[in-house]
Amino acid sequence: MSVYDNKNMIRRFWEDVFNKKNLNLIDSLFSNDWIYHGTAGQEVRGPEGLKQFLTIYFNAFPELQARIEDLIAEEDRVVSRVTMRGTHKGDLMGIPPLGKEISITAICISRLSGGKIVEDWELVDMYGMMQQLGVISQKKE
């Protein structure tokens, strides 16, 4: 696949899977042995694991949307920088719905092979999200 095709596949993930909540597309975009390396050592495997992982966040933030800020590609890698926004309306890892809005940044490096996404390394501003939710306090000087 070309760099252009790779960028389009990642754009399709953010726009069609993430923003439109179309989890059925995951099977066609991700390899069966896909692996996710997340913030603080998180690891998710396979398309079904990704569906479960996203469902946790979509249940907590039902209208969660990602705006693509940058898509940069070289060879078999695509880097996406997105801004995610949503309102906390459901349980999130034991945190009851707080009704607070969040706006956080994520940077993901995706590796593609054979027309599928095979691996992702992602850094999400989880600290910023917890501050915005009021779960942890902001440092005051």
Mass-distribution shape: globular
CATH class: Alpha Beta
CATH topology: Nuclear Transport Factor 2, Chain: A
Low-confidence stretches: none
Cα Rg: 15 Å
Helix-strand category: alpha+beta
How many separate domains? 1
Measured by DSSP, the beta-strand proportion falls in: 35-45%
Order of helices and strands: HHEEHEEEEH
Tally of contiguous helical segments: 4
Oligomer, anyone?
A: single chain
**What is the overall pLDDT average?**
95
The strand order across the widest sheet is: 2-1-6-5-4-3
Quickly describe the structure.
With 141 residues, this protein is of the alpha+beta class. It has four helices and six strands; from the N terminus they run H-H-E-E-H-E-E-E-E-H. The chain has one domain: Nuclear Transport Factor 2, Chain: A (Roll).
Overview of the molecule:
The protein is an alpha+beta fold and 141 residues long. 31% of the residues lie in helices and 38% in strands. It has four helices and six strands. It has helices at 3-19, 26-29, 46-60, 126-133; strands at 30-37, 43-45, 65-74, 77-87, 101-113, 116-124. A hairpin with a 5-residue loop joins strand 1 and strand 2 (43-45). The longest helix has 17 residues, at 3-19. It is globular and about 45 Å long.
